[in-house]
Structure to design on (307 residues):
């Protein structure tokens, strides 16, 4: 069935027909025009009744918009810190690989520097081609890369990483020799096997934040490994599996706990806690507990700062 354009008045009528209380229609129309009906309605699910069709009795437009606005703010908070991690991992990889293999492209992108398993040969070759293509396409679009091309005829890795996406950097890490993976992971006092799981998750959340997708209830494609944080926070289990902090937003918090500097992590959690408290005061129909549950945050989530 083909979708039909709806005016702001029609959008208001649809929301009201589903039981949403709209005290100020003029304000609601302004928000719908600014933010897009489709995006805003993506936050309705926590406010719906058991049938999933109508809003809980008494739900207001302001509550719906408050959840939308909360998600935007925590998205901005996490995005800032994900960019820190992105820069850190790029810098550390560039330093280690340049020191070990050299600073010219034919040195640090030499196939001999990467995993040797025959079944992964195609993966290595395909990724190296992808890296060289990004260097060729993006190299001429940035002042720093242009400078090195014009003056030296090549671009060192510590400059190249600035034009590589976080996703590509994660793939790059995956084809490094195990000793190089360990050297990079050691900076974060982590195991290489964990970093192999974390980097795609970080890249996924980074892109989600950059494109303003719904964050608070987003699920990662794969779970992180059980950690001592799960145990210390006494997160409940069902059938031997922790119910929080595995593939949800709190799993991302656990990763950031491991990878951010302590001061940065403390500030991030302080900012997140402020936004959670602010939202709690604006919710009337549901409790903040429901939002935290959807985020995968245990009720004692604040304790992770001191662990």
């Amino acid at each position: 069935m083909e979708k039909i354009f709806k005016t702001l008045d029609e959008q208001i009528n649809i929301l009201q027909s589903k039981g949403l209380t709209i005290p100020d229609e003029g304000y609601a129309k302004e928000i719908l025009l600014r933010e897009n009906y489709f995006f805003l309605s993506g936050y309705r699910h926590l406010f719906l009744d058991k049938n999933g069709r109508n809003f809980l009795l008494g739900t207001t437009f302001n509550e719906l918009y408050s959840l939308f606005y909360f998600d935007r703010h925590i998205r901005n908070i996490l995005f800032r810190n994900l960019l820190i991690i992105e820069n850190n991992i790029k810098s550390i990889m560039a330093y280690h690989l340049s020191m070990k293999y050299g600073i010219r492209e034919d040195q640090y992108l030499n196939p001999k520097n990467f995993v040797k398993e025959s079944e992964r040969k195609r993966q290595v070759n395909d990724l190296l081609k992808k890296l060289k293509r990004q260097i060729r396409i993006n190299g001429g679009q940035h002042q720093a890369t242009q400078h090195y091309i014009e003056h030296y005829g090549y671009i060192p890795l510590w400059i190249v990483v600035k034009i590589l996406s976080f996703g590509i950097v994660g793939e790059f890490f995956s084809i490094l020799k195990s000793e190089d993976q360990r050297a990079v992971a050691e900076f974060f006092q982590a195991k290489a096997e964990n970093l192999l799981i974390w980097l795609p998750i970080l890249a996924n959340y980074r892109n989600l934040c950059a494109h303003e997708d719904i964050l608070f209830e987003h699920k990662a494609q794969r779970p992180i490994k059980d950690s001592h944080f799960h145990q210390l926070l006494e997160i409940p289990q069902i059938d031997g599996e922790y119910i929080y902090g595995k593939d949800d937003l709190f799993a991302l918090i656990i990763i950031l706990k491991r990878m951010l500097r302590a001061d940065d992590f403390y500030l991030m959690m302080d900012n997140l806690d402020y936004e959670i408290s602010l939202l709690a005061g604006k919710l009337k129909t549901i409790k903040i507990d429901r939002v935290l549950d959807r985020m995968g945050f245990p009720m004692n989530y604040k304790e992770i700062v001191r662990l």
